[in-house]
Amino acid sequence: MKLDIQSFQKDVTAALTAEPLTAALTITNGMVIIAKTTNTGNIFFGNSAVSPSNGVIIPPGASVSFNPTDLGFSLGDQIDLNRFYIDAAVSGEGVSGFYPKKVNA
Fold first, then answer.
1. How far apart are CA 68 and CA 41, in angstroms?
2. Domains, in order of start, for the chain
3. Do residues 82 and 21 lie in contact, with contact meaning Cβ atoms separated by under 8 Å?
4. What does each of the 105 residues of the chain score in pLDDT, given as a tens digit?
5. Which stretches within 1-105 are classed as H helix?
6. What angle (nearest 5°) sits at the alpha carbon of residue 52, between those of residues 66 and 70?
């Protein structure tokens, strides 16, 4: 099996409105998201109800990594990036990220 690295960027259109990391189903076994260094406010990471009061806070330039084994799941378990959300303290700010994707040899 070979892996390729896929990348994405996501900006939150309106502050304090949760938006999915990806617009469509995106299956992978891990990810890293990085708050843009140009952000002037924090990013909040979580589920569809993420907000400043319940999200993981990601300051400008900081990163968060996640894979299923972090939570005790099996090594082969996968996640859908479309089920992870971000919110921003400031409209138009966001994240960049990357994740591994299986490719045929």
1. 28
2. 2-103 (2.60.120)
3. yes
4. 688 999 999 999 999 999 999 999 999 989 999 999 999 999 999 999 999 999 999 999 999 998 887 777 777 788 899 999 999 999 999 999 999 988 876
5. none
6. 15
Q: 8-37 burial, b for 16+ CB within 10 Å, e for fewer?
A: bebebeeeeebbbbbeeebebbebbbbbbe
C-alpha torsion angle, residues 56, 59, 62, 67 (rounded to 10): 10
3-state secondary structure of 26: coil
Instruction: List all residues 6 or more positions away from 53 whose beta carbon is below 8 Å from its beta carbon.
Output: none
Q: CA-based diameter of the chain, in Å?
A: 45
From CA 105, how far away is CA 49, in angstroms rounded? 39
User: Could you give the 3-state DSSP secondary structure of residue 104?
Assistant: coil
